[in-house]
Amino acid sequence: MAELKVSKVKRGTVIDHIRAGMAPAVLRILGIDRGFSDVVVVAMNVKSSQLGSKDIVKVENQILDEETLKKISIIAPQATINIVKEFEIVEKRGVSLPKELRGILKCPNRNCITNAAEKVESFFVCKQENPIEFRCHYCEELVEAERAELIL
Amino acid sequence: MTDQHWKNRDVISIHDFSREDIETVLHEAAGIVPNPDLLRGRVMASLFFEPSTRTQLSFASACERLVGQVIGFSSGEVSSKAKGETLADTIRMVEGYSDVIVVRHPLEGSARLAADTADIPVINAGDGANQHPTQTLLDLFTMEKFSGKIDGLSVGMVGDLRYGRTVHSLATALTRFKRIKLRLISPPTLRMPPSVLRELEGKIEYAEQEELDLTGLDVVYVTRIQKERFPDIEEYEKVKGTYVINAEVAQQLSPTAIILHPLPRVDEIHPEVDALPQAKYFEQAKAGIPVRMALLKLLLLGEDR
Ligand SMILES: [Zn+2]
User: Which fold has domain A100-150?
Assistant: First the structure.
C-alpha cells in the first residue's frame, strides 16, 4: 500500500492515535458538522505501530479547551494532541482520563434521576481503566466508555 | 473516629458498605432493645413517593420503639409531586422539619440525589430497581442469626436473578465475606447480569445452573418470578412451576439450612414449607425492625453510646 499523504495543517490541532473507527465520534465532540467552515482532514484506518491501525483528525484554526480534551479522552484515551503553528508542532500532549465526569456522559438508564424532569447534571465516576468504564453516581449503572453517549 | 464514621452518615447503597460497616450494623441490631430515651425528641421523615406498606411500617415501627417521632407521606397523599416540585426541593423543605430522612422513590439514583442535597442523614428505602440497602442488611442479619456466621456459607439464589434487586445487592454484600460459595439457580433468561457477576470475580466462588438442586446449601434465597418478564405466557407458566420450593424439594436441605425470601411471596414457596424448621422468611421480615433501629441509632447518635 502506498504511504498515505494527508495534507499538512498550517495552524491548528492534530489529534493523532485515535483508535481506529472513532474519528467520527471525535468530530462530533469537536462540533464539526455541516455548518463548520474551517478545513478538517480526517484519516481513518491508518497503519500504526502502537495501535495496529488508527484514525487521525486535523482541524485548522482550532485550539481545544479542557472540556473538549476530557471528552476526547473518554473515547480515545491513547490520543495525542499536537498543536501546530506555521506547519510546525509547537506542543505535543496526551489526554488524561478524568476520575469524574460532570455533565459529559448521558446515563443510558432511562429510569435514572438524571434523565428525569429533575434537571440533575449527570455525574459519572471512573470505575476501571481497561476497558474504560464509568459508574453513574446516582443510579450506579455501569457504562463502557466506547458505548457512552456524550452530552454535546 | 468510629463515632464520626456513623453519625450523620447516609445509607444509600450496599456498595458504600465495607465488611466492618456491615458488622457494626449487625452487632448493633443484635443488641438493640426498645428504649424510651434513645431518640426522644428526634423526628424521622418518611417520604414514600411510591407505596411500600411493608417497608414504611417497618421503619415507622423501628423509630417509635426508640421513641422518635415519624412524619411523612406515602404516594397518593403526595402533593408536592403533583405541583411539580422537584425531589431536591422537597428534600430541602423536609430537612427543616426532621433529623433523618427515609426516602423511597421510583427513579434510580433518587436516594443519592436526596443524600447529596440534605445535610441530615438519608436512608434509601428503595430507589427504583437500584438499591434497597436496609433489605440487604436485614438479609445478612437473618443469615448470621440462624447460621451463626456469614463467612464460609454456601448460599443458593433461586428464581429471577436478572431483575431482582435484592439478590444483586446481597451478592455484592457477600463479596465482603470470606469463603462464600454461591449457587445461582435460574432459568436461562433470568440469569444474574454480567455487571453483578463481574463484582463476584475473584471474591466468591459461584456457579450458575438451571436445575433446582439445593443439596449442600446453608442458605436458600428465593425470589419471585414475575409474569411481566416473559413475552410468552406458556414459557412463564413452565418456568414458574420449575422454581417452586415445596416440602419435597425442601427435603434436599439439611435441618440447619435456612430458607429466605424478601416477601411478599406468591407461589414460589408452598405454604406447607412454612411449618418446616428451615423456613425463616417471616423471621427475616421481623429482622427489619432491629436492623432499622440500629441504623437510626447509629446515624443520629453515632456508634459509642
Ligand atoms: Zn444514572
Answer: SH3 type barrels. (2.30.30)
Is B161 within 8 Å of B136 (Cβ atoms)? no
Taking the Cβ of residue B87 and every Cβ of chain A, the question of whether any pair is shorter than 8 Å is answered with yes
> What is the complex's ipTM, to 2 decimals?
0.92
Four-point Cα dihedral B14, B15, B20, B25, nearest 10: -20
Q: Which of B9, B65, B90, B104 is catalytic?
A: B104
Q: Are B113 and A142 within 8 A, CB to CB? A: no
Q: Which of B2, B15, B40, B54 is catalytic?
A: B54
Secondary structure of B77-139 in HEC code, one letter for each residue:
CCCCCCCCCCHHHHHHHHHCCCCEEEEEECCECHHHHHHHHCCCCEEEEEECCCCCHHHHHHH
The backbone torsions φ and ψ at residue B138, rounded to the nearest 5 degrees and listed phi first, read: -75, -30
Record: fold of B133-285: Rossmann fold (3.40.50)
The grid cell for B16 is: 458504600
Q: A-chain residues within 8 Å CB-CB of B128? A: 111, 139
Distance between CA atoms of residues B80 and B86, nearest Å: 8
Is residue B134 within 8 Å of B292, Cβ to Cβ?
yes
Q: What's this model's pTM, rounded to 2 decimal places? A: 0.89
A41, amino acid identity: V
**Does the domain spanning B3-132+286-301 belong to CATH 3.40.50.300?**
no
- In this complex, the residue of A113, A119, A142 whose CB is nearest that of residue B109 is A113
Q: Would you kindly state where each structural domain of chain B is located, as residue ranges?
A: 3-132+286-301, 133-285
* Domain A12-94 in this protein, CATH class: alpha beta
Residue B77 has pLDDT above 70, yes or no: no
Which residue from B15, B86, B109 is facing A138, i.e. has the nearest CB?
A: B109
DSSP string, B10-27: -B--GGG--HHHHHHHHH
Window from A31-35, B76-80, B115-119, B255-259 with minimum mean pLDDT: B76-80
Number of CB pairs, chain A paired with chain B, less than 8 A apart: 52
How deeply is B79 buried, as exposed, middle or buried, from its count of CB atoms within 10 A (0-12, 13-18, 19+)?
A: exposed
Residue B89 forms contact with A (CB below 8 Å): no
Distance A119 CA to ligand 1 centre (A): 13
